Fold this protein.
Amino acid sequence: MLAYLVKRLGLAVLVALTVSVIAYLLLYLSGDPALAIAGEGASQADIDLIRKTYGFDQPLIVQYGDWLLKLLRGDLGVSMYFKTDVASLIFSKLSTTLLLAVYALTVALAISVPLGVLAAIYKNSWIDRLCLAVAVVGQSMPNFFFALILIMLFSISWRLLPVSGSGTWQHFVMPAITLGYYAAPAFMRLIRAGMIEVLSADYIRTARAKGLPTRTVIFKHALRNAIVPVVALAAVQLGFLLGGSIVIETIFALDGLGYLAYQSITFKDYPVTQIIVLLLSVIYILLTLASDIANAWLDPRIRVA
Amino acid sequence: MKNNKALYVGCGLLLLIFCMAVFAPWLSPHDPYFQDLTYRTVPPIWYEQGTWLHPLGTDQLGRDYLSRLFYGARISLLIGASVAVISGLIGCTMGMLAGYFGGRIDMIVSFFVTTRLSMPVILVALATVALVGSSLFVVIMVLGLLKWDRFAVVMRSATQQVRAMEYVSAAQSAGASTLRILLTEVLPNVLPHLIVIATLEAASAILLEAALSFLGLGVQPPLPSWGLMISEAKSYMFFSFWLIAIPGTALAVLIFAINLAGDGLHQWLTPQERG
């Protein structure tokens, strides 16, 4: 187990370092970053000043090394647009996005677990097909279009929920539904497939044969086993939800990391964009690391391979 | 092939949208870029004020919506197809090399895949497009260079399976070159998997382009990208909901058709997995 742990941890660190290189190099996609920051019509003196202040005159490897060393010491740099340090800026938005991701995951599971179980029990019937239809619509609908429909219904027609902002729990309802519905189909397919497999297992037949009520068999015996792969998927999906939150937070002006990412990109606030790319990647790396270690702990065969 | 309604319906819908795209110049009643400011936000014909002159109405600049919808299909299909081809070429090459040679090459490819997966596509795509400058070509290239991961993963395991087959050893002992084995023995046998992944990736690329354009960092005006049409009409949606409903539905139908065709193909190509 220890060897596996060390190997897996080493890989995680290596991936994180590679991502940090890519995140840093993003800056150079515009050609000359000093020119991009100065904007159109800046004088040569201004451009030179920016080049010197941000260290763009140094060799690339030195710039990256400096940036990374500062990061490791906890200095995430200063935002050019918000004029505050990036660390406190991100920290103030992080809780909103994490909250949204958790709510969205809850919505996704609340949709997919019952529908997945139903689809498996009534396999190949009209109920199965109806559940499949719900999943297919969720996959086909662009999530920003779905968000606008929700706004039309809940905010404009029925006046139940606020259109945008992030002050109260009401502000999270529509973003969480949009993101959750978007993530639900993947869970549903996994739960349906898992339940169908488990329901045909011998121990389920035994449980039924000894006269246990159907409800007990399905929820206590079958679902418990079918849900194991869902935990692994949940970790991965949480990472995707963080990425998907960019579009959704922007639509609802929900003041989280996703909205900040969008703002930083449109305002050319590179230090913030770089850190958010790196941060979201590191969160994903940690989530998959945790899920891999949990799987290895549960299943000894993985450790050896 | 019998009873595969998904394949028929999906391919039928796709064919319809494909025809819309190809024959857009002949089908469109108007020039999709012509602005008639006296005819702004005319509603579609199923509304009382609708007119047959503009069957789907006009947008906030008085451009014929039906014509823009037809031309928009070209953009979505172009994005889907070219991103699937570019990312397919990258991903398949990496996956085949990793699966065939194993060992160190496999480790390197797996590392690339893990790194790529850890970065959120939409964020990196947004940032890249914003920095490089947004245009249809840039969007296609960026998505193509980002979305090869699933191709690589599937090709790797498919190639590993095929590699263990006797006909590959037979080709090896007959003295065939590695490139020849990969192209004539391995590739045809993993092709079914590839086509299914290509449909999934095309659908996802179309949705990503729409999201990028919706955020103003994708295809630029006045091109009639469906995502951009929704974005431009967003502030008019309270009074003219159809302005976002029409391109939104078009997108949903296209993605639905591709997913359905993909599911149908998957069932058709791997009949033993039918559940």
